[in-house]
Description:
The protein is of the alpha/beta class.
Amino acid sequence: SVLAELFISRSDCNQMTKKPFFENENVTLYHGNCVEVLKEIKQEVKGVITSPPYAMQRKKLYDGIEEEDYPKFTLDWMNSIELWDRGNVLINIRENISDGILSDYVLKTRLFLRENDWKEIDELIWIKPDSMPVGNNKRPRRSWERVLWFSNHNQPIVYPKHNGNPSKRIGLPKEQTGKNTKQWGVGYSEGFSEGFSRCKDYVEVTIGTNAKTNHPATYPVKFAEWMIKLISLPGEIVLDPFIGSGSSAIAALNTNRKIIGIDSKKEYLDFCVERINKYTKTQDSTSTLQGFLK
């Protein structure tokens, strides 16, 4: 559609250049269309976490994409990423229900990405224990969102123990298994060992932890941290091509990663910079206090 073409193809040349909108040691922000920005900066990243526009679900609040155009829209921005070999792209999204029926644009997008050489690795889940009681009151309350997991390789590098818990029962002793263990793709261990367990394929984070922002679809910093730690190591660069009010930027700072963020709306970037500056000021004050106490 014309709307999708404008959203993806416009260059915003009068507003966006290679010069960052904001930059410090760990965060670089760009203002403009993410495809155009990514083509200009050509910066390799270890992985991507993002929550892109949800088709036309919030069209009154920010630019939307027609459902029929969503697969190509997604492929265009994903193909513009300079992704590390065996890197990962995590996309937080959940389709809407229209006239009582689940929309199929997310399903079509997943299949389209597969058809165009992206590997769909798995589906992760964000559970929202305190979800808002909205939607059809004759149906279960919608209390989770999906995280689509794609990579440029069928064996991507991830770090599931980064989100795991300390455990004294790491392993799978042979005497505690059944006959068909091999079909699960696991091996035996000599016994239990101590260490960190792998995280599960879902995470529970309350939406009550969301910062108060000017953005209509903010996700919690703790949720962004979980995704970042799964796909990267401290000091590495991650990307959020739809950074909005900056939850992923704060998550990157909290986990000692570097981040590149892009957004087409200046008002969201302004708020993002405000959050980053507030975070930096708080960290500096904490460091000063700790130094004084020593």
